[in-house]
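thread: overnight batch results

M.L. [08:02]
morning all. the overnight job finished for the chain we discussed friday. pasting input first so we're all looking at the same thing
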Amino acid sequence: MKRKIILPFIGILLLAAVLATGYYYRGKWLRPASADDHLTLYGNVDIREAQLAFNASEHIERILVQEGDHVTTGALLAVLHQDLLKARVAEAQARFEAQRQVLAKLKAGSRSEEIDKARADLDAAKAHRKAVHDTWRRLRQLVKKKLASREEEENARSAALAAEAQEKAAQAALRLVLAGPRKEDIAAAQAELEARKAALDLAHQRLADTLLHAPADGIIRNRILEPGDMATPQTPVLTLAFGDPVWVRAYLPEPMLGRVQPGMRAQILSDSHPGKRYPGWVGYISPTAEFTPKNVETPELRTRLVYQLRVFACNPKGELRMGMPATVEIDLEQAAPATPVQHPCGE
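M.L. [08:03]
and the structure it wrote out:
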């Protein structure tokens, strides 16, 4: 009889032990291990990436990098065909030089030879006027003596008036040569030169757009297009991963919000390099709460609110890679910095 009573009691004790153990390990998985002066979080390494594209539409001539290559800021990564754009640059350069000479000619004014010619033309016009006036005067005397016809005298008078007009025209031409170009003509030539300079700069820029440079240090993750493919500004050619700094995406429990501040220093650990610690700092705490884990919808777990946390990590050797599980340790006794730490890796 006693045996029948003891066996159910032992079974109840075993069941309670199993449930307690499961509850303990489940809580340990869901909640970060923490103490009064120390916080441990678990997350994964994340990085930023850029989809690199040409700012032009043309066929790709060369791609100078492979997946996994480390590149530095400004490194040439790929080149488009350039023959057409080089010809347009040459054309724009020639137009600019031609207009520059036109403006230089206007600013230089009249040459001494042009002034001498204008003065000689005026002297010739004066001599011609004097000659035809003398002929007209003689004919008037001859008409009075009835030795010349009235028609001859009228023709001489017309020639004299035309000679006077020619002399005035020569005088005006000399004044124009001495005065030089009008300031309005110089201003118009200057504006035309600036327009052609802008066209030349545009041609150079379009030629420069056929070169794809690295915007920052990083690692080539993917070659999306190959030589011969048509590139456009909307079509990425390469994927560039920025390897330093990286960050660990973790989740901060709501009760810890008052103890963790942006700028606090942290230590990053990974299973790939046991015992090695990477210095880091809290860079971002989400302003909105979310539930975790997201695939669990039981009433108990839905009440557990967390805030996404980014702990930036110094990664000079590229040992921390995207997606790698990582552990974050934060000393809660440290004083929050007056200003957020931007990049303490060099310290």
